[in-house]
Design a protein that fits this description.
By secondary structure, the protein is mainly alpha-helical. The chain has one helix at 34-169; strands spanning 6-9, 19-22, 29-31. The protein has 2 domains: 1-32, no CATH class; 37-148. The chain has 1 helix and 3 strands; from the N terminus they run E-E-E-H. Strands 1-2-3 form a 3-stranded antiparallel beta sheet, with no helix packed on it. A hairpin with a 6-residue loop joins strand 2 and strand 3.
Amino acid sequence: MRSTLTITPIEEDAPVSEAAITCPKCSHEFLLTESLAAPMIEAVRREYDQKLAGFETEVAQRLDAERAKVVAEEAERARRTVALDLKSARDQLAESNRLLAEREGKLAEAQAAQADLIKARRELDDQRREMTLTVEKQVQAALGAERDKARSQAADELNLKLREKDETIR
């Protein structure tokens, strides 16, 4: 069984080289010299360095875990933001497509109405030309009939005058 040595400084703020070691068996105090203290200091230093290395490793692991957590949270936040932006862009695209389809429908209606109007104008112009031609034919026919009638009357009058002259002559 190993006994524990107690190191007590002679004064409160005294360096380790001025400390004393008390023997656990006989309770005798020995002054601690540099040659006696060096292996102990080295052992304590190694133990402290090991603890410090373990603590640094633990802190590094915690930092890595925290970084990974923050990265995951930020990635999730970025995914949500991108998803919202994407949804917003899709909604805008859908609205734009709906407006485009609506405007294309209105354009098609307007073009159909314009084509109907052009067709109606063409038919009206055709009817107008047909009516003008019909009126001209009727006028020509009426003029021809009136000329024939006027010729016939003139011939009748001329025949009547000739008869009267013939009768007067006779």
